[in-house]
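pasting for the record
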Amino acid sequence: MSRLTGADDPMLGCLLLLNRALQRPVPSAVLLEGLPLEGQGLTLPLLCAAATRAGLSTRLVERDLDDIPDTSLPAILLLGKNRPCVLLQRCEHGRFLVALPGWDGGVQEVSREELLAQHRGHAILALPALQPEVSTDTELVQQCPSPGAVLRQSWLRHCERLFASAFSALCRRGRHPAEDLARAGG
């Protein structure tokens, strides 16, 4: 089977455009390595797995076009007929700058009304992860984590934040957690 390109697969094309807009270009071979494509293009779960390999943290959200903050751009918008595009920025006079896969990175300015007519209310927001998981060559540095591993990591981060917040609150009140434990008999 030949390798998919951004021109062949609109989701892959959007991910490549998104990476380029974030100044984090990663070859498609790295993004696709080991993914169970089975002769088809990227699905939403596979797109998120490929984005993780590019060092991005992604989230699928249900959001109206006007409710996507500028700080979340660029973002992948899901359009009608299962077509995606990359929303790059808002322009003046209710216009938007978008990139469509297959244009080799070309951009187009469209009106808000044109984009609203196509937008189906979902977007994929992406932010650079704290620690990128791939280098820009074609070798995979780390396998994409399983969904269970991601949930465990998220849960552990939540617990760590909760503990740090409680510790910080106690310290601000001039008390030390060890003193509270001693008073409680623990």
